[in-house]
Structure formats: C-alpha cells, structure tokens
Amino acid sequence: MNTSSEDLGALFQGLVAVMEQLRGPLGCPWDREQTIESVAPFVLEEAYEVADAVASSRNENLCEELGDLLLQIVFIGTMAREKGLFDLGDVCRGITDKLIFRHPHIFGEMKADTSGEVIDLWDKMKKLEKQSSGVDQTPSALDGVRNSLPGLTYAFKLQKKAAKVGFDWSDHQGVVDKVIEEAEEIRESIATGSREDVEGEIGDLLFTAVNIARFMGVDPEGALRRSTDKFVKRFRIMEKAMKLDEREITAMGIDEMDIYWERAKSILASEKREFPAINPGEEIDS
C-alpha cells in the first residue's frame, strides 16, 4: 500500500525480467510463439476486465485486473524491443513527456483554474502536438473519434458527428427499413457470395442497427451488454433446471433444450426491468 518510488522501480524491473525470461531461449513455448499482433486483442480484453471490476465495485479484484493489463503492456513492450522498434523505457519516457507537455498550467507558465479551462488547454496542446508531428491537419466533421473504440461505440460516435452536419436519415422508419434490406442482403450473400461478402453485409447490418439505437436514444453498447447478460442468466437457469432433473446438456437435443430455455425465460419474466419511454432522435452520451 505504501510502496516507495525506489521499490516500485525495482518491482517493475522484476516484472520485465520475468517476461524476458519467458521470451528467452529456455522460456515458455507459448510466450515465445506470441507476436505483437497476437497479444494485442488481450489488451482490450484486460481493459474491459478492469472496467468491469470498477463498475462492479469489486475492489479486491481491481488490483489483480490492473496487473493483468500491465502484463500485456510489458509483453508488447518486450516484443517491440526484440524487433528494434522501441523499449519500455521509451514508453515511460513518452507518456511522461506527454503529461508534462499537456499540463503547462502545472509544469509551465500557463494558467487554468477550473476543470473546463484544463480541458480547453489539453485540447489546445494536443493540436500543437499534431502540428509538430506532421500529421495531416485537413479538418473533417468526423474528427475526434478514435478508431480504437469498441466497434458499436465507434459507429455510434461517428454517426452522431455526421448527423450534426445534416448527413442523416429523415426519420427512424427509414433506418428500420434499411435494417430489413441489410438482413436480406446477408441472406443473399450467404447463398451466392464469399466469406468476405458475408462479413461485409453483417457489418452493414450492425452499422444500421446502431443508427436505430441512436435515433431511439439507446446506447448500443449498453443495449448489447444487457441482452448478453440476459442470455447468460437464462442459460445458467436452464443449466440449473437440467441439473435438478439429472440431465446432461451435452446429451440433449435442441428441441429438449428449447423446453428448458422457455422455462428459464418464464422464471426471469417477473424480473423484467422497466425502462423509461424514449423519443426518436433523443440525444444520449456514449
């Protein structure tokens, strides 16, 4: 709880040393086979685990989840050093320099007394960074949305940006009709197209579904999360019912499973959450 900066440095070096041993000639076969590309998805997964621990107020798990996330950073940093790209020292140096540069009211002569002024100053310093980096500064109505966001949130924010300049459907019914059209195109691509065609049509359907969510004032990421949580609850109730009947799910056909599934739906029906009425086009934050 009260680790000194010196001890913290030693602990971090210890973690790096363990990772280097795992990646070494006598290290772990699995760790040695990994690449930056293969490990990258785990970063997002572990970040979600951290967010879940925070949202669930499971403080006893938060420390462990932060460690798992830090591991992925060290893992990728170690592989980047092996490839001669950069090392973890460059990572620490870069973020430290960025924090100092973006806080001139603390480390420089500028002034910012409120949170609002700090945010304005932060944005100003970010623009200065981009100008000095040679990044294309051609303005776009879609600027400010990171493509590293989860897919549904990324689509949602881009659609909101486009809508603000008038590039939008006239009403929600047009989007509903578009969903039906996209679903039919999936059917056609499955029958006649390649896997790439099917993937493209599924992406179009999801993008259009996000548009409906935006029109109806629904957060698509939250909506999918709730539906997925509902599936998990029903499935677990179904499994418990099968266990009480001394049945094994792996030995049952889909028709029998459906009977248990409907029973689980009935059990959860009384717990159905009531959501407030929403108006098409209602603005929500995401």
TrEMBL record:
CDD domains per UniProt: NTP-PPase_MazG_Cterm, NTP-PPase_MazG_Nterm
Organism in which the protein naturally occurs: Candidatus Wallbacteria bacterium HGW-Wallbacteria-1
Record GO biological process: dATP catabolic process; dGTP catabolic process; dTTP catabolic process; dUTP catabolic process; response to stress; TTP catabolic process; UTP catabolic process
UniProt-listed Pfam families: MazG
SUPFAM superfamilies tied to this protein: all-alpha NTP pyrophosphatases
One annotated GO molecular function: nucleoside triphosphate diphosphatase activity
Location of the NTP pyrophosphohydrolase MazG-like domain: 34-107, 172-234
Signal peptide (from-to): none
Keyword entries, A-Z: Hydrolase
Source organism superkingdom: Bacteria
UniProt name for this protein: Nucleoside triphosphate pyrophosphohydrolase
InterPro entries hit by this protein: MazG-like_dom (IPR004518), NTP-PPase_MazG-like_C (IPR048011), NTP-PPase_MazG-like_N (IPR048015), NTP_PyrPHydrolase_MazG (IPR011551)
